[in-house]
Design brief:
By secondary structure, this protein is mostly helical. It has a domain of about 55 residues. The protein has 5 helices and 3 strands. The chain has a 3-stranded antiparallel β-sheet with strand order 1-3-2. A hairpin with a 2-residue loop joins strand 2 and strand 3. The chain is elongated and about 100 Å long. The mean pLDDT is about 85.
Length: about 110
């Protein structure tokens, strides 16, 4: 067993350093993950952050057409952060794909004119 002979000032300094280390940004616990279930306003903010700014009316129309992932909680619409992110990713078109589609349309239009 170790013998601890520390003065009161030494103990205060040790405690002060430990408290400072615990309160520093490195010592802080990670922030909790963002909410997984979003209401309509949260979904609109997330979609805007993901580069797909939509209006409330558009989101309502997409839910009516079942074109966007959602659930109903009573009368309220709720959205999953993960499902909305996957939905946005699925809608994104790579530049090479859009070039191929444009070239195909041009070729089809040229064939129609003949």
């Amino acid at each position: 067993m170790k013998n601890f002979n520390s003065s009161e000032n030494d103990l205060r300094a040790i405690v002060r350093e430990e408290v400072r280390a615990a309160l520093s940004p490195k010592g802080r616990a990670p922030q909790p993950e963002a909410r997984e279930v979003l209401n309509l306003e949260g979904a609109l903010r997330l979609l805007d952050e993901l580069g797909v700014p939509l209006t409330r009316k558009t989101v309502y129309n997409l839910t009516t057409d079942r074109a966007i992932p959602y659930r109903k909680n009573g009368r309220r619409l709720v959205f999953s952060r993960r499902e909305l992110t996957a939905w946005v990713d699925a809608r994104m078109v790579a530049p090479s794909e859009s070039r191929k589609a444009a070239a195909l349309r041009l070729a089809q239009n040229a064939n129609l004119k003949r």
